[in-house]
Amino acid sequence: MTTVQLQKTNQTPIKAARGSYWITTFGCQMNKADSERMSGILEYMGYYPAEEELKADLVLYNTCTIRDSAEQKVYSYLGRQAIRKRSLPNLKIVVAGCLAQQEGESLLRRVPEIDLLMGPQHCNRLESLLNQVDSGQQVLATEEQFILEDITTPRRDSSICGWVNIIYGCNERCTYCVVPSVRGKEQSRTPEAIKSEVKDLAKSGYKEITLLGQNIDAYGRDFQSQNKEDSAQITLSYLLKYIHDIEGIERIRFATSHPRYFTKELIDTCSELPKVCEHFHIPFQSGSNKILKNMGRGYTIESYKNIINYIKAKIPKAAISGDAIVAFPGENETDYEQTLSLIDEIKFDHVNTAAYSPRPNTPAATWPRQLNEDIKVKRLREINSLVENIAKERNQRYKNTSQEILIENINPKDSFQLMGRTRTNRLTFFPRSLENGVENKLGELIKVKITDVRPFSLTAKLI
Fold this sequence. Notes:
By secondary structure, the protein is of the alpha/beta class. The chain has helices at residues 29-45, 68-87, 98-103, 105-110, 126-134, 179-183, 191-203, 221-225, 236-243, 264-272, 289-295, 301-314, 333-346, 373-395, and strands at residues 3-5, 19-26, 47-49, 58-63, 92-97, 116-118, 139-141, 161-168, 187-188, 208-213, 251-255, 279-281, 319-326, 350-355, 402-410, 417-421, 427-431, 445-453, 458-462.
């Protein structure tokens, strides 16, 4: 779990100043994109970024419920703000995101100082909900609703790389996951709305976009159920072609994919479009068909391998990453070893790993044969070691090669270095300036030569 805090911006509020705000974001890229949008709404309303969390007039926690540790951190943060509110009654406390949707009224009872509790599907309604708070109400917004197209300009956390939501919600029923219950049903944005947002990003100088969705390769299938005209052709492949030639955008990425919907057509499309980067994040979760069935994932290891093999055949230089859960209820040593074998066979560039964590209102949380913490810790430690070793092995292919890097920022740990990513999404550090003193600029695409490799990052020299 990572916590991302939006930093101060020089953007001028459109309306009269209402006070300062602070947003802390827990969890996934979808949450980070939602926070950018809510930050844009707040600045439109007249709020401005606070210098410090404990000095803000409005604090907003955009929460995650995938792991219990993320929940506990939110409660700790809320405790600090509740103490502040006893002496600062005008302080506004807002809780958004998946934990808000999951807990609802019980969270308000636990922390009655909260002014606004809102689920992810209500992010675009932040202004109207805060207006209700200003009228003296404590507001709970967790009912399922159709997500309105948002016309507010997000306050982007980067001026180079932008996130663009293309599909909200999730129709899957994985037995360990709370996402469908907290983010609602799948709802695809129209291609026209997406293209308009990407064009605006390009006009603002953005060079890279990442299309986001819980199951991004399911994009468009809800249009078919609505019997919209020409809906059958609206897929992720179609969308990639539709936005590909927008002038100014140099790179296109997308996440997160579901193996059930990842098609050969999509792989063919990615191989044909030069702006689509050679990186695919396709969670596999387990190497055991028995466990996958119990998880309700809807695919087999054999079908998963077919996807990976086709990617390697069509795009040999592609990087492949995934997600894995160890110690799922009923996972025995054979099941676990099959997961390790899959990682070793495919040679993933990276795998996000986690030990199973029972989540409220999910079937798996009540099943027998829950594994104890000692087994979880042991298996997580072992799988992490394997992932790290394979990642370093995979990175050897970059040594002494020339790579194209999009410069994203200054290295926060070394002001004499810049940082960016290869097309395959490998973080790379390199000198800020050439030998003649000329400095490279953020947003530039440059060529570097890789000199050192580590499991999860590279070092390069300028060419």
